[in-house]
Amino acid sequence: MKYLLLLASVATLILALTGCKQPAPQAVDLPYAGKWKINLEQSDFGETTVTIAQMGSGQMQYTADGMSYTFRLDGKDYPALLGQTAAWKRIDKTTWETSTKLDGKVISTTTSALSADGATLTMEAKGPKPGGGSFDDTIAFQRASGGPGLPGTWKTKNVKISAPPIIEMAASGQDGLTLKIADFQAACDAKLDGKDYPFTGPTIPPGMTFAIQKTGPLSIEMTQKQDGKALYQDTLTVSADGKTLTDTGSAVGVSEKYTVVYDRQ
């Protein structure tokens, strides 16, 4: 369960779990039930690597978390990650704008700005939340290689989230979880049996699923997939005092780890 599912658009998705604010009787069996909010100071999003390569015939290739797509800087829509499209255009010699769409509807607009020394690329993503309001999130990347300009290998340096959504969990029946995030009107109802269950919402790409299973009294394992292909694998663990929830994971097939810490609300 990665906060930055799509680095191409920076903040198109924030995946979450839903439930009740106060512990209910099922909290004994589901210690992770409740409302949670990201603690940015304690979280480590890892050195996620993004590569933007100059290809032949004017094409460019964007790669992150083992996934890639090609595009041109002509403002036209090109198939991007996870069923979305991305339209890139140059604003000036150090600034680019990317419009990310799902089913033809814009879900985020990202401005990528290169520092004067060419060492830092800052991506600021803005867009509406289906549940109301908007987001304005920023990721700063440090150049690891390449250049000049946009092409190169970039690693995460800093992440700023304008209004982190509340993440929640609750029991569903005797052996499941109801998954939801109100800000993005996204939801999933899954059993803890390791099988795939649909995760849907206005900004959720088609074919997205969660497979969840219990791995201990205070932990669950989640595998996020699209059309049956595993994308991310995470372990969510509640602290002994029940005050924090720690999500440790990585993209499947990629060695870069991330740790996201949530505080109980």
Give the SSE layout.
Elements: E1 34-38, E2 49-54, E3 60-64, E4 67-71, E5 78-79, E6 85-92, E7 95-102, E8 105-114, E9 120-128, E10 134-145, E11 152-160, E12 166-172, E13 176-181, E14 186-191, E15 193-198, E16 208-216, E17 219-226, E18 229-238, E19 244-251, E20 257-264
Antiparallel strand pairs: 1-12, 1-20, 2-3, 2-11, 3-4, 5-6, 6-7, 7-8, 8-9, 9-10, 10-11, 12-13, 13-14, 15-16, 16-17, 17-18, 18-19, 19-20
Strand order of the largest sheet: 14-13-12-1-20-19-18-17-16-15
What is the overall number of helices? 0
CATH superfamily of the largest domain: Calycin beta-barrel core domain
Strand content: over 45%
Give a quick summary of the entry.
The protein is mainly β. It is built from no helices and 20 strands. The protein has two domains: 122 residues, Lipocalin, CATH 2.40.128.20; 112 residues.
What features would you describe in this structure?
The protein is mostly beta strands. It has 2 domains: 25-45 and 164-264, Lipocalin; 49-160. The protein has strands spanning 34-38, 49-54, 60-64, 67-71, 78-79, 85-92, 95-102, 105-114, 120-128, 134-145, 152-160, 166-172, 176-181, 186-191, 193-198, 208-216, 219-226, 229-238, 244-251, 257-264. Residues 1-28 have low confidence and may be disordered.
